[in-house]
Write a structure and sequence with these properties.
With 465 residues, this protein is an alpha/beta fold. It folds into 2 domains: 22-81 and 263-463, Zn peptidases (Aminopeptidase, 3-Layer(aba) Sandwich), CATH 3.40.630.10; 92-249, Glucose Oxidase, domain 1. Helices cover 35% and strands 25% of the residues. It has 13 helices and 14 strands. Strands 1, 2, 3, 4, 5, 6, 7, 8, 9, 10 and 11 form an 11-stranded mixed sheet that branches. Strands 13-12-14 form a 3-stranded mixed sheet, with helices on one face. The longest helix has 20 residues, at 2-21. Mean pLDDT is 95; it is low at 1-5. The structure holds zinc ion. Zinc ion (ZN) binds at residues 277, 289-290, 323, 351.
Amino acid sequence: MNRILALTGALLLTATATAQVFDETTLEVAGELREQALGSELGYEITADLTTRIGNRLAGSENDARAVAWAVEMLEGLGFDRVWTEPVTFPYWVRETERVAIVAPVEQDLVATALGFSPATPAEGLEAEVVMFDDLAALDAAPDASVTGKIVFIRNRMERARDGSGYGPAVQARTGGSLVAARKGAAAIVIRSIGTSTNRFAHTGVMRFTAGSRYVPAAAISNPDADQLERLIALGEPVRMRVTIDASINQTYTSQNVIAQLDGATNPDSIVALGAHLDSWDVGTGALDDAAGVGIVTAAAQLIAGREQRPDRSIQVILFAAEEIGLWGGRAWAEAHGDEVARYLVASESDFGAGPIYEMTAKVADDAMPVIEAIQAELAPLGIAMGERGGGAGPDFSPMMAKGLAAVRLRQDGTNYFDYHHTENDTLDKVDPEAMKQNIAAFAVFAWLAANSPVEFGSGPGLVD
Ligand SMILES: [Zn+2]
């Protein structure tokens, strides 16, 4: 009897706590937004328009400027109160051509892509014997004499996982490989693509780049080509390769973060920030990465902008510049707004393709947890569970998180994301319009409720790790 009473009491307490956070009208609007989003084509249309009209959008390219102009015009047409840009300055990289070929014991061309910020080789290419390593740590531990003058091949494989957790360990070879290979006197480095596809597409991506350090030319080869190279090496004869890359690293370019705001009714100085990045790699059309995110957060905010009733707090859509080549937009934003971190109630970015969202994580103050739980209750009909406490807000918000920004992540199913990530195959047909609607519904419900939160989420020094 006591146990039943206690259980009933606990259930009542939970129900009461949830009911107390938001009033009935606010919850009704959340439910309407959810339904509206599931019936709206706007997010997909935005994604289609960006990838069709502009195509790929490498930071510093002509299409970068075109994408900024496109974003300003698109946001101005959607009923936000204000749209503006903020400058982001960065060094940039231009790809011309790349060719990776095995020249001995047999001649074979491999499908390859130069890594972002790879220096050029001499015009005739660099030819040398290949030395293979399991991963970056193995290269780092190898005696210099075994590497000097050779072409390093790192073969680590990315594991497929719903949460994308295979990416972090594997990507070390891409980000750090060129620097370590250079330190050991290698001629060049070739890596197995950081991706899960068995298709013959190579996955590009940035390598860590600091002016003043020495780097060697770097490329990724497709996964089937990496398998082939491994088999050839296993035959025991020395394998020789030629790497030819034409690319340039350029001084500075100024792009823009593009920001749209919907003013809050009673507390407009407090802001819920929704992010995505406008730039992409120069391969494919950057549909999953991250035109889909642009469509998701813009459509979610637009649904709220289209209602008569305003949320208490303001909502911003921030389309970041130059994410792919080093989080330049996110870093510039944190620098410009770091002093006012407490004004940002919470932030969340969509930058993981267009797969369905399965859970919500939150890094917020204890006081805000009832609000987070109440938001999750409204996301539950979309199949979104409560994840563990903590986590980030997405890559572009990470520099501001270092200053204490509160974070929510609506985690997407990324099982197939890394089949297309940073490849020629990242095109609009990979975006599932139905899954996108679920994402937009989740962002709209989250943004609406967060912007009506009765309490702060704790942004400030207290949330710095
Ligand atoms: Zn991205």
